[in-house]
Amino acid sequence: MKLRTKFIIFAVVVHSLLAAMAYFLLRENKLLFIGMEVLVLLSVVLTANLYNAFFKPLNLIRAGIETIRDKDFSTKFVQVGQPELDELVDVYNRMIEQLRQERIAQAEKHFLLEKIIQASPAGIILLDFDNRIESINPAAERFLYLSGQSLQGSQLAALPNTWARELTQVQAGQPYTFRLNGIRTFRAHRAHFIDRGFQRAFILLEELTEAIIKNERQAYEKVIRMMSHEVNNSTGAINSILDSVQYYTPQIDEEHREDFTYALQVAIDRNANLSRFMANFADVVRLPAPSKKPVQLQALLKRLERLMLPQLEHRHINLSMKLPANPLCIPMDEQQMEQALLNILKNAMEAVKSEGNIWVELQKQPPYLTITDNGEGIPEHVRPMLFTPFFSTKETGQGIGLTMIREILLSHGFQFSLESNEDKLTSFRIRLTAEQTK
Length: 438
Known about the structure:
The protein has helices at residues 3-28, 30-69, 83-119, 138-144, 148-151, 161-167, 209-246, 254-285, 297-315, 334-352, 400-412, and strands at residues 123-127, 133-136, 176-180, 184-195, 198-207, 293-296, 318-322, 329-332, 357-363, 368-373, 414-420, 426-434. Helix 1 runs antiparallel to helix 2. A hairpin with a 3-residue loop joins strand 3 (176-180) and strand 4. It is rod-shaped and about 170 Å long. The protein has a 5-stranded antiparallel β-sheet. Strands 7-9-10-12-11 form a 5-stranded mixed β-sheet. A two-stranded antiparallel sheet has the order 6-8. By secondary structure, it is of the alpha+beta class.
């Protein structure tokens, strides 16, 4: 039973008893009856005042509870001139004002945090209580080449390719560095926070590719310049000496002249090979900034097809091209991109060796160029080393080709990847739009 009901029942019972007593006094003494009636009226008035005094604060408290339950922190009460009630009103108003200020501060902090997450150059993957992806920020979408909506509710193991394998290995509090396709390097951090009393996790991704490539480039440029200087000085002096020695060939006995000429020619050839060897390295260092002009990709690819046709026919390799009917023009340095694409096609041809296929597909929206071969595929242990400067799996390889391809594509701002699938189909994929500055 509510307190209000109890009070009303009590007041009714008491005043009923007073009314009964007044009725009996009416028979005995009319003056006492009139006095009793006045007393009953005064009691009713006093009871009504006490009712308002007791239950008005309760109504106030009930109204305040309703506003708090509705999360309405803008409603305040006005003082009524009653000291006890005014004190309660003052306490309530201060509490509501503090709650309102805290709510505003929390909303502002939440808004600021959302803005920071959205603008952060680091990728952030937010997980729910079941370790499923709840949301990812724009930087993570750029890293994964996927939208947050398509990943929402997925497990980390459902991420594409190497991402799934690498991110599932990240442990809380232990930074983890990994490389994708031999070119993109990331550092991942896993941490936890408390949400509604329960622990949740998030993964922070930092791309280190640009810094690592810059450091690599500075290191090998310095080494190559020093080596080129020393080798060129040495080969120049040796060439001068060999030319002088050739002058004395007629003076050598006929019996030893052939051996002398052969040994001299071997020395000249080796000296020339050394010069060409260093020139190949120097070409990577001297690669100029691209001079971009609109280039029609279909015409460029057809030209490369004609250039490689004799070698393809000799190896019995079929080159198939799937090109859009309408011309696709992309701003690029035609000479540099021709060299890069030629190296990619040569690598594909060497991977196939003979009796195989190479497919070239050009896509307009978004502009992608994909070169696929059905060669031997890329071994698992080699994939992290792809595009590492001067790394080669060939016995006589210098590792120049992929290094030059990397430098040309990076200088153009083109994103690219080199991957082999389970069917040993290897695809070199290039996005033919300059990557926006983050």
